[in-house]
Amino acid sequence: MGLLQLLVVAVLASERRVAGAAEVFGNSSEGLIEFSVGKFRYFELNRPFPEEAVLHDISSNVTFLIFQIHSQYQNTTVSFSPTLLSNASETGTASGLVFILRPEQSTCTWYLGTSGIEPVQNMAILLSYSERDPIPGGCNLEFDLDIDPNIYLEYNFFETTIKFAPANLGYARGVDPPPCDAGMDQDSRWRLQYDVYQYFLPENDLTEEMLLKHLQRMVSVPQVKANALKVVTLTANDKTSVSFSSLPGQGVIYNVIVWDPFLNTSAAYVPAHTYACSFEAGEGSCASLGRVSSKVFFTLFALLGFFVCFFGHRFWKTELFFIGFIIMGFFFYILITRLTPIKYDVHLILTAVAGSVGGMFLVAVWWRFGILSICMLCVGLVLGFLISSVTFFTPLGNLKIFHDDGVFWVTFSCIAILIPVVFMGCLRILNILTCGVIGSYSVVLAVGSYLSTSLSYITLNVLKRALNKDFHRAFTNVPFQTNDFIILAVWGMLAVSGITLQIRRERGRPFFPPHPYKLWKQERERRVTNILDPSYHIPPLRERLYGRLTQIKELFQKEQPAGERTPLLL
Length: 570
Known about the structure:
The chain is α+β, with helices and mostly antiparallel strands. Helix 5 crosses helix 6 (344-369). It folds into 2 domains: 33-172 and 187-272, Immunoglobulins (Immunoglobulin-like, Sandwich), CATH 2.60.40.10; 290-504, no CATH class. It is built from 13 helices and 19 strands. Strand 11 (151-155) and strand 12 form a beta hairpin. It has helices at 2-19, 208-215, 221-227, 292-311, 316-339, 344-369, 372-393, 405-422, 427-448, 457-467, 482-505, 516-529, 541-555; strands at residues 23-25, 32-35, 40-45, 51-55, 64-70, 76-79, 89-92, 94-100, 108-113, 120-129, 151-155, 159-164, 193-200, 229-235, 241-245, 252-260, 265-268, 272-274, 474-475. It is found in: Membrane. Pfam families: Ig_TM7SF3_N, TM7S3_TM198. InterPro entries: TM7S3/TM198-like_dom, TM7SF3. The chain crosses the membrane at residues 296-313, 320-340, 346-367, 374-394, 406-423, 430-451, 485-503. Residues 299-503 form the TM7S3/TM198-like domain.
């Protein structure tokens, strides 16, 4: 009997320790889920019945509660009542409700459910706020809920846009809420400010456990400020909508903190997350982002770029083909993408064909006319394009002034043109620098088609801006994690190695090869005037072609039988 009592005491003690932990695991099979303020709860929702959730022992100094529930990609519903009403429920992967407490209220109930066939793993938490704290979504006029603390997220290939409802000032229990549009003085909600935060999940990790773990860092105000990157601060006069550059396959969490500067109090909205891709779609899903056509295209492009990185200046025509391919391919891809609705794979094939034509055209221009300045202008502009792209890849690109397309493209073009102007007096150095930097970056692009890396967005962001008229409003922040540091080191190593090798090898040699057409013409004249040259006796090209055609015709003619063919004379 004593042993049984000891076992009971041990079980009760263990349950008490679990209830006091920061994370509570369980399921909803019992039909009732109990919550505690500020503690995360993991549980599973099934389709047939909505589950009732309850919170007991609410403190008297708590004015309102915000409940939020998160899942990776399956929708869940949170509702004030068992019957789902549009103005009393919220459905999504990140859903929340605000509970305005009545005087003397110490218990709160609500309902959870899912419409999906498969069970949904969820994480939920309740946060409490006092009468001095602003109420997120308290002045909602756009969405269904009367008070809506949720962040609504939309994405496409180019940009991800978040929207949220304006907040209202806090107030005590049993008191009417302050009017939202009664005035614009310091005693109204127009004094509130909104800080928008962005948090990146680890690269190449699409697991549910990783998402739910990191979501815990984006729930409360202190955690958000400590872990996330503040992107922009909005005033009550600004539109409550912010756009970001989409990063397919990269998990990103967004949250907004509303701040009352008069009382120095804050409250957090319900965080929203996205991978800018679908977990359920077949083609283009998060699990299969890299297209085969992209991998083939950028792998071949990287092989050519790797050769140019180390031998481009020596093999001048190959480098010109590489530069012409880049210029023609870039502009042709923008043109056909904006004018035609054809598929991506066809775009890539046509871009490869057009780039090849552009490369051969630049080689032909050099061979026939031999104008070094034109060729080096193209080389310098390509290097300037990459340097300008790197400049706007930094936080400088997120300055408000560069959200204007006119200012952006003028500044971008000036930086690109500045590079060939600066190196006008040392063209060989410019050419070798271009070979090393551009050739090695092609390897980075090839790696980006197989692994997720932020360095590929150096040029992709510029391409997006050229293709999409609304991309100017997007913030172009990207994560910079372990993979990116490794690839950046590889890029730098290849560039420095290629530049150093070519500078040492070309020391003492002519700066550039001579004009090919002049050499060919001089060689032709020498052959004509020099009888002792064996090539002098070579027939002209027209006669040689005619002789070849005659030989080919003889292959198809029937062989004549041997013997006398002349008729006898009588």
